[in-house]
Amino acid sequence: MPSLIVPHVPHYIHPAVTQEQLDYADLAIIDLSKASDAQGRVELAAQVVEAMKMQGFFYVVNHGYTAAQTERMFDIADVSFSGVEAEEKRVYTAQMKQTGSYQGYKPRQYWVINMDVTKKKHPEALRPLLPEIDAFARHTHFNVLHPILRLMALGLELPEEELVNLHGFSSRSYPRSAEDELNTKNVWLKGHTDFGTITVLYSQPVAALQILGKDGKWKWIKHLENALVINAGDSMEFLSGGYYKPTIHRVVQPPPDQRNHTRLGVFYFAMTDDNVRLVPLASSPVLQRVGVTRRCEDKDAPNMEAWRRGRTSAYGQSQLKVATAGGEVEEEVIGGVVVRHHN
């Protein structure tokens, strides 16, 4: 068969990996190629549970995309910035505060996101690329997210499809391309947790992402070629009754040998269907043994749509209350749930 002809886009050249000696987090590596049979999934589920307890982040390898396919997605991601003029970007500016939606471009110190490709119009430069973006989103959803959800369900001793069934592709899962802009004091994005269930980050070489360790120290996330970096968000904490807790993470200024380079990211943020109430999956034998930790009473728990809208409309807009004497932690209350940000 003839090879597929894809639109030409300029090749995005990543900066070199930093040579600085950084204090990296020791993350587990989950090999998804071992998830093809039941015994392999049981073994991987135990690894995921341990990774979530120890670090809250882990790598995924053998996820079904070749290095060349991943590079192509970074080429496409860069088109969102280098291939769209400022005037056209203004047409696609998001109305986060007004509508609770973060689809579209944001001012500096916000995020830049391109949404589910079938639901919104897109800048002209991206339109020929939509089939590839759609294929990428579907691959990440069905061949990365779903296997991870099955492993996490097994870790709770639930049926494998329990979490998968809450994550329809046509719901609120977003393929995202993002370029982080300098904020203040070398912290680009404050310490926070993601508000969805699972975040998939396609690893890239500019060091900037850090996680807060159990010892209270920030650790860098190291780049692994063609690996994915996975973490859970608040919604997974709700559903798992606190068993899978999200880890505080932040984006900081890169080390000196990378500071003149752009940090371009390819992400996939997953959420449940909008109508799913974010209450613990109490049928889990694990939760029945270890107990449930709730961030709010079940009767007050939001559904995914309310939680998403509350978090996105408040992001960068709300007044935060200092929660610690030194000001290291700030709080806001969204839908009756306390949300913490770490300076």
UniProtKB/TrEMBL annotation:
Protein name, as recorded: Clavaminate synthase-like protein
Q: Name one GO molecular function term.
A: metal ion binding
Q: Does the keyword Metal-binding apply?
A: yes
Domain Isopenicillin N synthase-like Fe(2+) 2OG dioxygenase, residue spans:
172-259
Query: Per the database record, which ranges form the Non-haem dioxygenase N-terminal domain?
Result: 29-108
Q: Which domain of life is it from?
A: Eukaryota
What keywords were assigned to this record? Iron, Metal-binding
